[in-house]
Amino acid sequence: MAALLGIDIGTSSVKALLFDTVQARPVAAHGVEYPIYTPVPGWAEQDPDDYWRAAIAAVRHVTAQTGITDIAAISFSGQMHGTILLDADNRPLHRAIIWADTRSGTEVGPLVANFPAYASVAGTLPAPGFMIGTLSWLARHEPELLRRTARVILPKDYVRLMMTGSAVTEVSDAAGSGTFAVARGEWAAEIIASAGLPLDIFPPVLQSTDVAGTLLPAAAEALGLSAGIPVIAGCSDQPAHGIGNGLIAPGAASVSVGTGGQVFVPLQPQGALRTDERLHVFNHVVPGMWYVLGATLSAGLSLRWLRNLVGLQDTPDAYERLSTEAATVAAGAEGLIFLPYLTGERTPHMDALARGTFVGLSLHHTRAHLARAVMEGVCFAMRQALEISLALSGPVDVVIASGGGMESALWRQMMADVTGLPLQKSLMAEQACTGAALLAGVGAGVYDSLATACQETVQRGTLTEPDAARHAFYDEQHAQFLALYPLLREQMHTLAKRAAAKPS
Question: Is 0.85 surpassed by the pTM of this model?
């Protein structure tokens, strides 16, 4: 049987993965990096053609590695929220303005002021880097560029455009734009009008398993593949990770600790769809299904920051060393709490000016204590996001642990102890690419449903059970953690603004 090709257009690289449906596993994966341009502090841009060049290189690498060029279908996962402006000939007018861009920080407040029911329609409040904020900034600062724009699409949509010639998006990425009515499954004309933006620049919205087109001859030649291969719409990276972890129905959740931390919970409401301004509620790839997304911005990034701070950045086993040291310290880090807000925070504070803090430092604290406090602080933040998410979705039977941070047995046990829930480790690698490949299989009819695809593919490990005594202790520590942000918020804001001000 022909292989499936999943392509993930990430923030730092494109990854291509070949999936063998007979063996029900990936057989090759390869990533190709590209830069982020920061012409002004706080801006974050990428060249859309870098996505395409990297996709070509990644696909050619995995096909050369395996000798497989017989592809049944292609699909995508992609970084969320970013904006690509196209002219009438579907060529980029500007670099992609991606999710990490903060230039629209002054635009998002007025969006909600002009439309108070924003979150109940869009499933989220707008944030800097979301398409709605970026377009609002362009309307104010680059109106001529916006007038020349015939279509706006998201990063993965550009790679699909280069393959098929069709400038469209799909429901999961549209939901992450901040301009989508998530309950109705269509562009939120009322939000777009309140922002003073033209509705006609927003593209047609497909379902994630729809066939968006077939591989054009020129694109096939560039990729080293055959023309005519079905190209499936795909999805944004969070639901792609969800598919790779088998999270396509209610009853389970995941906590992922990578650079950032994400809580992902499938949602299928019995009545009207409910939202919460502290979270994101977006459309899942399964029709009639949504997901709750809670995000902490500096999860693994906090431990990376500590690694560099203590001079271990050039040590190959730095994370293992920090984890081993942290394990020598008792729960609670002997009176030390860390707030992991090094780059601001999303859930639940939605506060770009929140800042990281150690509280309780004493002369007796060592590097081991700092490492333990950082790891616990990330767990406390993730518990806060998880509990708010479950208040919307209802209880779950299992929580899947994924991401590089959850490879640490200590951190995984810590997360179970802090949340009080058993964690089941994902055994899947490259979940986003695998999710994209499975979408390709469903869209092309290789699988009759995502449920079948996941049942044949997804693998999970043994459970990590919470320790009852440590959980009881962490309940008290978590309450202290929750009390600190309201006490320190104004000081955080003052210091953040002072740091950003130019010296006189």
Answer: yes
